[in-house]
Amino acid sequence: MGKIVLYISISLDGYIADIDGGVDWLGGENAGYQGDYGFSAFFETVEAILMGGRTYRQVRRELSPDVWPYQGKRVYVLTHQAEADAPEGVRFISGPSAQLLRQLREQTTGTVWVCGGADVVEQCLPEIEEFHLTVMPVLLGDGIPLFRPGRERIPLTLAALRRENGVVDCVYTRRTN
Questions:
Q1: Among residues 61, 38, 20, 22, which one has the least CA distance to residue 135?
Q2: Strand partners, 77
Q3: 107 pLDDT tier (thresholds 50, 70, 90)
Q4: SS3 sequence, the chain?
Q5: Each residue of 118-141: pLDDT tens digit?
Q6: Dihedral (C-alpha) 77, 81, 85, 89: value to the nearest 10 degrees?
Q7: Rounded distance between C-alpha atoms, residue 85 and residue 118, angstroms
C-alpha cells in the first residue's frame, strides 16, 4: 500500500509562491549551492504525482519548458482544462481528489506525491499522511499561503529534521493520539 505525501517548499512565513505565483526565491543562503535538499532521494520513492492545473502549466511553461521532469512517473493533473500535447503518463482529472488518492494508495507500494498548489493541497489534506516541508530562508511578506486559515486542527509529530545551506527540511506525520 502506498503513502500519500505532501512534499513542498515554503517560505519561512508559510507561502508557496509570491503574490504573482513566482518561485524565484527558492534556494538557500549560498546562491551557488549545487545540492538538492534531499529531493532526489525522495523522488526515487515516488510512483505517482498529483498536481493542480496551475502547477502543471508553471512546470511546462516556466520551470522546465524543454524537459518534462517527471518522465516515467504517473502524473494526475486536477483541472478542467486538459491539454492535447501532454507528456506521456499525464492524465487530466476533473473528479474528486480524495477518491483518486484512496485509489492510488491501494494501487501503489511507493509514494504518491501531492505536488501542489495550495488548492490541491487543501482538497487532499484529509488523505495526506506525511507532510514534507522544505523551509527556505526567506520572508516573502505576502503571497500564496500553503494552508488556508480557519481549518480544523491537525496534530502532527516531527518524524525527521535536517538542514542544508540554510534550508530546513521538516517531515511530519499525523499524530495518532
A1: 38
A2: 51, 92
A3: very high
A4: CCEEEEEEEEECCCEEECCCCCCCCCCCCCCCCCCCCCHHHHHHCEEEEEEEHHHHHHHHHHHCCCCCCCCCCEEEEECCCCCCCCCCCEEEECCCHHHHHHHHHHHCCCEEEEEECHHHHHHHHHHCCEEEEEEECCCCCCCEECCCCCCCCCCEEEEEEEEECCEEEEEEEECCC
A5: 889 999 999 999 999 999 999 999
A6: 20
A7: 25
Q: Stretch 12-39: mean pLDDT, rounded?
A: 92
Mean pLDDT computed over every residue of the chain: 93
Q: Ramachandran region of residue 14, left (φ > 0), alpha (ψ -120 to 50) or beta?
A: left
Average pLDDT over residues 7-27: 94
Burial (CB count within 10 angstroms: exposed 0-12, middle 13-18, buried 19+), residue 102: middle
- How far is CA 26 from its chain centroid? 14
CB neighbours of 96 closer than 8 A, spacing ≥ 6?
123
Residue positions counted in the chain:
177
Contact status, residue 73 vs residue 49, Cβ threshold 8 Å:
yes
The three three-digit cell numbers of residue 154, written as one number: 491537525
